[in-house]
Amino acid sequence: MTFVQEAPVSVGSQDLEQQLEGQRKALTGYCYRMLGSPFEAEDAVQETLLRAWRGFDQFEGRAALRSWVFRIATNVCLDMVKGRERRAIPMDFGSASAPIEANLHTRPEVTWIAPIQDSLVAGEADPADVAVAHETIRLAFVAALQHLPPRQRAVLILCEVLRWQASEVGELLDTSVASVNSALQRARATLAGSAITPEDTTPPTGEAQRLLLERYVAAFEQYDLKALTALIQKDARQSMPPFDMWLSGRDDILAWWYGPGIGCRGSKLIPVPTTNGTVAFGQYKPSDSGSGLDPWSLQVLEFRHGEIVEFTFFLDTERLFPLYGLPSRLDS
Question: pTM, whole model, 2 decimals?
Answer without folding.
Answer: 0.90
